[in-house]
Prior knowledge:
Blueprint: E1 9-13, E2 17-22, E3 25-30, E4 36-39, H1 41-49, E5 54-55, H2 56-66, H3 71-87, E6 91-96
Antiparallel strand pairs: 1-5, 1-6, 2-3, 3-4
Helix pairs in contact: 2-3
Amino acid sequence: MDAPLSKDSIVIASPEQVSCELGDESVILSLKNSVYYGVDPVGASVWKLLKQQRSVGELRDALIEEYDVESDRCEADLLTLLENLRAEGLIKVIGAVTESA
């Protein structure tokens, strides 16, 4: 099993999907299993950010700027969403942020 995501994990949308915006929500089609997934407005904000590789911490910070949410709550909810997206093959984990000395 893959290691759990953390704020230092770097993630990006899988190339094996297509998506489109529907109002303030998004719909994602997995090209691997031909299943459609819908995300609410907050999920759609995350999905837009996932078009480029970002750390979970960067995603959290962007959401905190956009929404009135506490950092710990935002990070916990974000990690849950990302784990669900990863389980469905919609995102890829491509590494982790490393601290430079």
